[in-house]
C-alpha cells in the first residue's frame, strides 16, 4: 500500500488529469487521450489541447509515471507512441486523488462579467448574450446526457461526473432564464 511518503514532483492539474485518463488501464496514444478528454473532461474541467497533452506526457514519462512504446500503424503511416501508466504513476495519482487538498472551483464566467458591465450595453444586446449562453448551456447538457448514456461500466465514476455535468448545465440554462426574467422586471420598473 502506498503511504504517500515518497517524494513526488509537483504537477499541474492537467498532468493529473492526463495520468487519471491512463489510470483506467488502457494503453493510449496522445490522440486517444485527446478523444477521451473531449468525451469526459471538457464538461467539468476543460479539454487540453494536443500540445498540452503531449507536453504532460513528456513530463509524466520523465517522472516515471508513464512508459511509452512505438506501435506500427496498419495504414502505413508513421509509428505512433502509446502510453501506459506505471505502478509508480498509479500510486501517485491514487495518492493525489486521496490526499490533495480540495480546491474550490474558480469561477471565470464571461457572461456574468458582461452582465456586470450591463450599464455599457443596450438591453437587447444583453438579452442576446444571455440567450446565446442559454443555448450553449442546453447544448452542453444534451451532450453530457448523450455521452453519459454511452459510458462503459468501467467508467462508472466518470458517468457520475457526466450526470453532475448535466445538472450543472441545466442550472446554467435555468440561471440564464432567471436573468432574462430579471432584466424584464428591471425594464418594467424603469418605465
From TrEMBL:
Pfam family, one: PadR
Residues in Transcription regulator PadR N-terminal domain copies: 18-93
Name of this protein: PadR family transcriptional regulator
Amino acid at each position: 500500500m502506498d503511504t504517500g511518503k515518497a517524494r513526488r514532483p509537483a504537477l499541474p492539474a492537467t498532468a493529473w488529469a492526463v495520468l487519471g485518463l491512463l489510470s483506467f488501464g488502457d494503453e493510449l496514444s496522445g490522440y486517444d487521450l485527446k478523444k477521451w478528454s473531449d468525451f469526459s473532461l471538457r464538461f467539468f474541467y476543460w479539454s487540453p489541447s494536443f500540445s498540452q497533452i503531449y507536453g504532460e506526457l513528456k513530463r509524466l514519462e520523465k517522472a516515471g509515471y508513464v512508459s511509452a512504446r512505438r506501435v506500427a500503424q496498419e495504414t502505413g503511416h508513421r509509428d505512433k507512441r502509446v502510453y501506459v501508466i506505471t505502478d509508480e504513476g498509479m500510486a501517485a495519482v491514487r495518492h493525489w486523488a486521496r490526499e490533495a487538498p480540495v480546491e474550490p472551483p474558480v469561477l471565470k464566467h464571461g457572461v456574468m462579467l458582461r452582465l456586470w458591465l450591463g450599464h455599457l450595453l443596450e438591453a437587447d444586446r444583453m438579452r442576446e448574450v444571455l440567450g446565446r449562453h442559454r443555448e450553449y448551456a442546453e447544448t452542453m447538457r444534451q451532450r453530457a446526457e448523450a455521452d453519459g448514456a454511452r459510458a462503459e461500466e468501467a467508467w462508472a465514476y466518470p458517468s457520475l461526473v457526466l450526470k453532475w455535468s448535466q445538472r450543472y448545465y441545466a442550472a446554467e440554462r435555468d440561471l440564464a432564464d432567471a436573468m432574462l426574467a430579471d432584466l424584464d422586471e428591471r425594464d418594467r420598473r424603469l418605465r
